[in-house]
Design brief:
By secondary structure, the chain is an alpha+beta fold. It folds into four domains: 108 residues, Immunoglobulin-like, CATH 2.60.40; 132 residues, Immunoglobulin-like (Sandwich); 135 residues, Sandwich (Immunoglobulin-like), CATH 2.60.40; 111 residues, Up-down Bundle (Four Helix Bundle (Hemerythrin (Met), subunit A)), CATH 1.20.120. It contains nine helices and 30 strands. The strands form eight sheets. Strands 21, 23, 24, 25, 26, 28 and 29 form a seven-stranded mixed sheet that branches. Strands 11, 12, 14, 15 and 16 form a five-stranded antiparallel sheet that branches. A four-stranded antiparallel sheet has the order 1-3-6-5, with no helix packed on it. Helix 6 packs parallel to helix 9, helix 7 runs antiparallel to helix 8 and helix 8 packs antiparallel against helix 9. The longest helix has 29 residues. It is flat. The chain starts with a helix and ends with a helix. Pfam families: BatD. Keywords: Membrane, Signal, Transmembrane, Transmembrane helix. This is BatD family protein.
């Protein structure tokens, strides 16, 4: 008997848990609207049900619906289901009204929604129609900027991921970028997107499809509140209408919408002053590694060795200076060769940077390379850390003993030892010149050839002068030749990279900017599309040519994130040659 009671209690608990997982709710597109506006009400459930019974909508007129949308997907082995009934309502009068409960039967259980309170006011100047295609598109299309950290330290990496959310109620047929954020207060780098992939997710609790359009890593270069500009897109949206064909398929209306991610603000914290080391140069990261290595510790005088100062790990590797290497005065030190092996992903910069010094000891002896200290702000512990290398002893075994070399325990030698002259023995001091010949030059064939050469050049000079004069008179031809030559000069790098989409469009954009800088004497910071249009028009360039130039710049921006064919690259290159030539002829 006791076991039966326990089994019954367990069964009831499991049943209650299963029932608790069912969701059935009502949502209104707005809770306050004018009497001349329309309202959309959605009834959404996460399990399929029967006998759906909507409320009466007594104070509203049903102008559309019910429209039914079903989403059923599997993600990582888990099923995600959603079914929605949508109604479009027009209020009959002003006042505060209640939309009653809707009912649905799911697995023999009846579920009801919560009543909705709606306020209807006087007519508004610009009504938004709940059944209007543009309104439906704007309500079901969202561009979102997701920021990994809104309160970072100075020079701490944060990521901005731009996602375009699309409701199952609509379709997106095409999109293009209108305006890109400039990130003026940040060091920024875009992460290459190999291809765009549609994924299933949620937006404000509703099932949506989304695609990641862009990923950017930012390192703030100022403290305080910094603004992240929005990304703006032009999207072609297909919205279902109430009309159907003879087979019952719904007709779609295409609407062009402009969506933006919205301005975002982050608060950048300054690095603490307390405990800041004296040699700190701005390095910020996590668990950085600092090393000083030499390729040999034993050698002869006037031979060379290489000493490498290296920092590796994860941090702002490209944004700080490495500490200098100090060597004894009797050891020649050449300017270091900088190298970096840094990759950027969503976690920020990772890899290593290094300075490699070439050192040449001049005399025999033992040369200590003193320890080198490197300081950075550790994000894991939120404190400063100082790493110090070990002292390295260089043993010079053979060579002249001029001067006094430092011992292992002593400091650097203060007196500069003059360079050993033997290292310049490769320069030949004795020559072996030979005479040209003993025969007389005057009267020789070479003498008469050189004598007659000016007379022979006179006809050629006359012909060349006439041709040059004719070319100088051809003003239009000169303009065309000069413009074509200038265009191909600036576009030479882009032509070499035809076939490589990323390098080609980077070279093409750089060529267009460099041409404007040289032609109109403007700086890179002034190169917004609006500024370029105003400058070109004010310098007498035709509006058609200006439009072509701006379209080329937009093609360069758009091609960073979407694939382009080889034919499109050749067309853009030919168009760039034509546009630069036209501008050069008109300005």
């Amino acid at each position: 008997m006791k076991s039966k009671i326990l089994f019954l209690a367990f069964f009831l608990m499991i049943s209650d848990f299963a029932v608790a997982q069912v969701q059935f709710e009502a949502k209104a597109s707005k809770t306050k609207l004018g009497v001349n506006e329309r309202l959309r009400v959605d009834f959404t459930m996460n399990e399929d049900g029967d006998n759906f019974n909507p409320p009466s909508f007594s104070n509203f007129t049903v102008v559309g619906g019910p429209n039914q949308a079903v989403s059923n997907s599997w993600v990582n082995g888990k099923r995600s289901y959603s079914k929605t009934y949508s109604y479009f309502l027009a209020p009959k009068k002003r006042g505060k009204f209640t939309i009653g409960q809707a009912e649905i039967t799911i697995e023999e259980n009846v579920y009801k929604t919560t009543p909705l309170e709606i306020e209807v006011t006087a007519a508004v100047d610009e009504p938004t129609d709940g059944n209007n295609s543009e309104f439906v598109a704007s309500e079901n299309l969202h561009l979102v900027a997701e920021i990994s950290n809104t309160n970072p330290y100075l020079n701490e990496a944060i990521t901005v991921v731009y996602k375009l959310y699309v409701s199952p109620r609509i379709n997106v047929s095409d999109w293009r970028q209108i305006d890109n954020p400039k990130f003026s207060d940040f060091w920024s780098q875009n992460i290459d997107m190999q291809r765009l992939q549609v994924e299933n997710g949620e937006y404000e609790g509703e099932p949506y499809r989304y695609v990641v359009l862009r990923k950017t890593v930012l390192y703030p270069q100022k403290t305080g509140k910094l603004n992240i500009e929005p990304l703006t897109l032009a999207v072609s949206v297909e919205v279902p209408t109430e009309r159907r064909d003879i087979f019952g398929n719904r007709f779609y209306e295409t609407v062009d919408k402009t969506v933006a991610a919205g301005n975002r603000t982050i608060n950048v914290k300054p690095l603490p002053q307390e405990g800041k080391p004296e040699g700190f140069t701005g390095a910020v990261g996590k668990n950085l590694i600092f090393k000083v290595n030499v390729d040999k510790r034993e050698l002869n005088a006037t031979e060379s060795l290489e000493a490498e100062v290296q920092v590796s790990g994860r941090g702002n590797l490209k944004l700080f200076d490495l500490p200098p290497l100090t060597v004894p005065a009797s050891m020649e030190k050449y300017e270091p060769e900088y190298a970096e092996d840094v990759k950027t992903n969503l976690n920020g910069m990772q890899g290593s940077i290094s300075n490699t010094y070439t050192l040449v000891p001049q005399t025999k002896g033992k040369y200590p390379i003193p320890p080198v200290s490197f300081s950075y702000f550790d994000l894991a512990s939120e404190s400063y850390k100082t790493l110090t290398s070990e002292e390295i002893l260089i043993d010079v075994q053979r060579g002249p003993a001029k001067g006094v070399a430092s011992n292992a325990g002593s400091g650097p030698v203060q007196q500069q030892i003059p360079a050993i002259t033997s290292q310049f023995r490769y320069i030949k001091l004795k020559t072996s010149l030979k005479p040209l010949g003993e025969s007389a030059f005057i009267g020789s064939p070479l003498f008469w050839s050189l004598f007659a050469l000016p007379l022979m050049l006179i006809p050629l000079a006359i012909i060349f002068g006439n041709k040059r004069k004719a070319m100088a008179g051809d003003v239009r031809g000169n303009r065309v030749r000069k413009a074509d030559k200038l265009a191909r000069k600036y576009l030479s790098a882009a032509k070499r990279n035809l076939g490589d989409q990323k390098k080609f469009y980077e070279s093409l954009e750089r060529a267009l900017h460099n041409y404007l800088k040289a032609k109109l004497h403007i700086q890179t910071s002034e190169m917004s599309k609006e500024r370029i249009q105003d400058l070109l028009i004010s310098n007498g360039v035709s509006s058609e040519t200006v439009t072509d130039f701006v379209k080329l710049l937009e093609s360069c921006e758009f091609a960073r994130y979407t694939p382009a064919s080889s034919v499109a690259m050749h067309q853009d290159y030919d168009k760039a040659v034509e546009v630069i030539s036209e501008i050069d002829k008109q300005v």
